[in-house]
Amino acid sequence: MNERFDLSVGLDTVLVRRTRTRLCGPTARSVSRASTGSPRLRLRTAPADHGSGKPHDDAPGRLNRMDDATSEAGRAFLRTVQQGQVRRGVVSSLVDFGAFVDLGGCVDGLVNVAEVSWLYYDRLADVVEVGQEVTVVVLDIDLDRVRMSLSLKALQFDPFKDFARTHLGRVLVGRVTKVVPFGVFVHVHEGIAGLLHKSAFDVPDTDRPAPLPQVGDEVVVEISDINFTRRTVSLTLVR
Q1: Mind listing the domains of the chain with CATH numbers?
Q2: Pseudo-torsion of CA 202, 207, 210, 211, nearest 10°?
Q3: Residue 41 and residue 53: Cα distance in Å, rounded?
Q4: C-alpha span between 89 and 82 (Å, rounded)
Q5: Using CA atoms, how far apart are residues 129 and 236, in angstroms rounded to an integer?
Q6: 210-216: long-range contacts at Cβ-Cβ below 8 A with a sequence spacing of 24 or more?
Q7: Residue 65's closest CA among 27, 25, 117?
Q8: Whole-number mean pLDDT of the chain?
Q9: How many helices (H) and strands (E) does the chain have?
Q10: pLDDT tens-digit profile of 204-213?
Q11: Does pLDDT of 201 surpass 50?
């Protein structure tokens, strides 16, 4: 996740890493003409922490000459953005830890994977795609590190609230969506899957483990527990 690509321009070198800033102004135009002719070149730095949405602290503290100019332009743009503000932008790239969104300035904001959607998803590309126009909420602005955290799900309806209010104790037929060593996840509502522990399939009076259902199989379950804080659903097998 820390790939480096060196792009030489005259006697200067731009270190292209994972970041949220891009070259702006005269420097950007000179680099663009010297490289591929593209109108903008993004500088990528350290990835964000998966849980908090804030950047890791493993980025080097020293910036080269072009980074200095880019950072100042990035800070100038960030001063025009407000925390809590709703902005429209375009998804510029997808990475393992989230999606970068171009808001039209020198800094691409990061939508951490935890802030993409309330609904369960396996692949980020199933939810957003590069070039897609999106509306986001600005969660955090870091002028020192020239970074900005965004949220997509802050503007979305949370289906878990209605589910928790209406589905506790309900018996229904669900389809297995994932098999894991400790059980299976069963689809019980749009975007919501509950865990059915492997012990539910044990055969009485035998130590032989029972085979688990496979992805796509249907099972009858009761929604036995809902934890709203942890956003988890526990299921009981109905035989």
Answers
A1: 5-155 (2.40.50.140), 159-237 (2.40.50.140)
A2: 150
A3: 24
A4: 15
A5: 37
A6: 212/179, 212/183, 212/184, 213/176, 213/179, 213/184, 214/176, 214/179, 215/176, 215/177, 215/178, 215/179, 216/175, 216/176
A7: 27
A8: 77
A9: 3, 14
A10: 777 777 789 9
A11: yes
Q: Within a 10 A sphere around the Cβ of 75, how many other Cβ atoms?
A: 18
Residue the block writes with tokens 């010297």: 34
What residues have CB less than 8 Å from 73, skipping those under 6 apart?
A: 21, 24, 25, 106
Alpha-carbon gap, residue 200 to 238, rounded angstroms: 9
Distance CA 17, CA 58 (A): 12
Residues 137, 85: contact at Cβ < 8 Å?
Answer: yes
pLDDT tens-place string over residues 96-130? 999 999 998 888 999 999 999 988 787 899 999 99
Q: How far apart are CA 39 and CA 47, in angstroms?
A: 24
Percent of the chain with pLDDT over 90: 55
**Helix%, strand%, coil% for the chain, nearest 5:** 20, 40, 40
Distance CA 12, CA 16 (A): 13
Give tens-digit pLDDT for 81-91.
Answer: 999 999 999 99
Quote the tokens at residue 6. 């060196």
Torsion angle of alpha carbons 123, 211, 231, 177, nearest 10°? 30
- Residue 25 — left, alpha, or beta (φ > 0 → left; ψ -120 to 50 → alpha)? left
Given the structure tokens 């970041």, which residue do they identify? 19
| Beta-strand pair 171-180/147-151 | unpaired
Residue carrying the six token digits 């994932």: 178
